[in-house]
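During the no-cost extension, the postdoctoral fellow (Dr. R.K.) reprocessed legacy sequence entries with the updated structure-token encoder. One reprocessed record is reproduced below for audit purposes.
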Amino acid sequence: MTDVVDIAAAFARALFAGDVNSAHELLSDELRGEVAAVDLSSQFASLSEDMGGVTGIGQPMVIMEEWPEMSAEDRAMVYVPLEGDVFSEAITVNVSVINNAVRISNIEWGRP
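Re-encoded structure tokens follow.
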């Protein structure tokens, strides 16, 4: 499960650092086709603004390894806490193995 947590952490760290191109490269081909890098930047900025700014990334954790809508490629749903001055939020991602590559196949902005 280390690889699924690592990719979720790398995704959040890239967004936090403003490196949306690196974050975008971690998405599955399908999701990359649906979501442009600029969209990732906008979503993260909106979430950050709503919480008074992101000051850090917390320790990602696997919250589910099975769920009703999961695909054959899905491996885990990973919750990545975002720390802020006003309050905390999170990004939840589905991590999948597609063509032997670990990729993010879905993103939920904000706490579930």
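The chain has a mean pLDDT of 93. Residues 2-109 form a domain with the Nuclear Transport Factor 2; Chain: A, fold (CATH 3.10.450.50). The remaining legacy entries will be reprocessed before the final report is submitted.
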